[in-house]
Amino acid sequence: MNSLIKNVGKIVKMRSNKEIFRLLANANFPLKKDLCKKKSNSYTRNILQNIKNEYILMVICWAPHSKSPIHDHNCQCFYKVLEGSIVEKRYIEDGKKLTKISKTSLGNGSIGHINDDLGVHLMENITNDYVYTLHLYIPPYETCNIYPSVDDLSQKKSILYDIS
Ligand SMILES: [Fe+2]
Predict the structure, then answer these.
(1) Is 132 exposed, middle or buried (0-12, 13-18, 19+ CB in 10 A)?
(2) Distance 107 CA to ligand 1 centre (A)
């Protein structure tokens, strides 16, 4: 993890997706199993580094059968599956509804990228095990929109994250 934290700032400044993918591909570190709230049936965000206006790096631990809401990002989001596998469903918004455009099972070591031009998404741990994913958001974001319904965009709402 030390080399990841040491290099991430420099790589983010290069503004090269290719370099970020390379950084994530090389990111391997032992996971502290206390990253999860074991009693939770949800996901837990663990911030590793938060550099104002530049990036935020975190590990998300997904309890068995937990999932995020469908959400947008207001930033570039890069991610890597550190342990386990997770399903990503992507949607596009046409002003009236969300249409699903893909469903991908991301296995151990898989790397991905999404931004609001590419769509919105949810991630779901459909397994009986805890799953760990690494996320790099450029720049850091405190708010995003979530979509409780794919058919009724009036339910779309902004949520605030505590990234301190
Ligand atoms: Fe996301």
Answers:
(1) buried
(2) 17
Which two three-digit tokens encode residue 158?
A: 């902004």
- Could you tell me if residue 126 is inside a domain? yes
Residue 84 counted as domain residue: yes
On whether residue 51 sits in a domain, the answer given is yes
Q: How far is the CA of 144 from the centre of ligand 1 (A)?
A: 9
Q: What percent of the chain stands above pLDDT 90? A: 80
Is there a contact between 17 and 113 (Cβ–Cβ < 8 Å)? yes
Structural domain boundaries, residue 116: 33-158
102-131: buried (b, 16+ CB within 10 Å) or exposed (e) per residue? eeeebeeebbbebeeeebbbbbbbeeeebb
Using the mean position of ligand 1's atoms as its centre, give its distance from the Cα of residue 112 in Å.
Answer: 10
How many domains is the chain built from? 1
Distance between CA atoms of residues 102 and 112, nearest Å: 13
In a domain, 50, yes or no: yes
Residues in contact with 154: Cβ distance below 8 Å, sequence separation at least 6, in sequence order: none
Interval 9-36: pLDDT, tens: 999 999 999 999 999 999 988 887 777 7
Give the predicted TM-score (pTM) of the model: 0.93
> What CATH number is associated with residue 50?
2.60.120.10
